[in-house]
Every structure is written in C-alpha cells, then in structure tokens.
Design goal:
Chain lengths: ~110, ~120
C-alpha cells in the first residue's frame, strides 16, 4: 500500500516569489509520482510526473519537481509564481503496475499581488 | 494530451431520484476508468475501478448498490447514484487510462452533484 503526505495545507506567497510545495510518500514497492493542479470546480490537470530516469522533472507552467528516494520526497517548485497559479495542488503516487492513484490531501497555493 | 470528457458538469436532483454521470475518453480507448469523490476542501477518494466489460471493483466502504458503475465500451463509463440523498452531494471526478505506458490518469472536468 502507498500513502502520501502533503505537509502544508495552505501556502500563501506573493507574486513573483519562489514557492515549494512539499510531498512525502511511503510505499513498499517502486512508485510513480505525480503532481496535479485543480482549479475551483474543475477536474485535475497533470503538472508533471516521475516515472524513472532523471530525478529532476520539468512540467507545465514552469513547475518542476525533484524525486528524492532516500528522503521519499517529491517536492514541487516554481521559481516565480503568478496570480494565475492560485489553485489546489495534489501530490499522488502509483505503485507498480496498479493504475490506482493515492492522493495527498492537497495544498492550497494562494498567490497574492 | 488525452482528453476525458465528463458530463454533466453540474446537476441538481431531488432526494430519492437517481442521477447518471458519464465519462468519455475522446481520443483513446480507456480499458480502465476510475471514479473518485471529493468532499469540500479535501482530497480525492477513490470509489471504484472499472474495466471495460467487467464488473467494477469497489473500494471498502463504498456501496455498490448505491453507486452503480457501468463500463460497457472502451470509451464510456457511467456512474449512477441511485436513490440520492443530500449526503450524496459532492464533486465526482472520473479518470481514464488506456493501460499502456505511463498513461495513468487523465481526468474529467468533474460533476458537482447537489441533492435537495
């Protein structure tokens, strides 16, 4: 079984500031890791994913994440945020060949002017 | 990227009635679809997994007779909330995968169900 912990339920930042959203996971098998963004009353949009290979993954909208196996982390970063980045962000893990995703509780990123 | 269309986006129904939500994969064949439920300001809870042509597999605690899932074709899965009650009001989201490669989760836009 897998589990995901998003350490911050809310992260307020000012526009053009850098941001890091933290995600830790636990699993007894090799995992695939994902970050999704959800805007109000909408579904989830995939930001980026780690499957294998390079531990630094670049995604859409200027986001990137780094997979750290020893620390079982997959933190999401952006060097300079925009007002439009205000949304809920979910970290998710998938174990092995099972396509089911386990989600963290989400982090609400609020970008203030 | 792959497109998953969910319909309707919003629905209001009376208590005791049933409501059907559709989830379609528009440009790929979805061998597996997932249905999630999301409570306000909370994460997504997996309700069930459906494979085309097979009975859905429900997660523990999810009433299969209340949440009927049909996956009759490779592009369409439906979730029917039967005899809806106000506590069934929620945001329901589907996702679909072709089962190949890294395609794990393309999500629909979600359906806001309100039972009055």
């Amino acid at each position: 079984a897998q589990s995901v912990t998003q350490l911050d339920s809310q992260v307020p930042v000012f526009e053009e500031a850098p941001v890091e959203l933290r995600c830790n996971y636990s699993s007894s098998v090799s995992v695939y890791l994902f970050w999704y963004v959800q805007y109000p009353n909408q579904g989830l949009q995939l930001l980026l994913k780690y499957l294998s290979g390079s531990t630094l993954v670049k995604g859409i909208n200027g986001f990137e994440a780094e997979f750290n196996k020893s620390q079982t982390s997959f933190h999401l970063r952006k060097p300079s945020v925009h007002i439009s980045d205000t949304a809920e962000y979910f970290c998710a893990v998938r174990g092995g060949s099972n396509y089911k995703l386990t989600f963290g509780k989400g982090t609400l990123l609020t970008v203030n002017p | 990227g792959a497109v998953v269309s969910q319909h309707p986006s919003r629905v209001i129904c009376k208590s005791g009635t049933s409501v059907k939500i559709e989830c379609r994969s528009l440009d790929f064949q979805a061998t597996t679809m997932f249905w999630y439920r999301q409570f306000p300001k909370q994460s997504l809870m997996l309700m069930a997994t459906s494979n085309e042509g097979s009975k859905a597999t429900y997660e523990q605690g999810v009433e299969k007779d209340k949440f009927l899932i049909n996956h009759a074709s490779l592009t369409l899965s439906t979730l029917t909330v039967t005899s809806a009650h106000p506590e069934d009001s929620s945001f329901y989201i589907c996702s679909a995968t072709s089962g190949t490669g890294d395609l794990g989760a393309f999500f629909g836009q979600g359906t806001r169900l309100t039972v009055v």
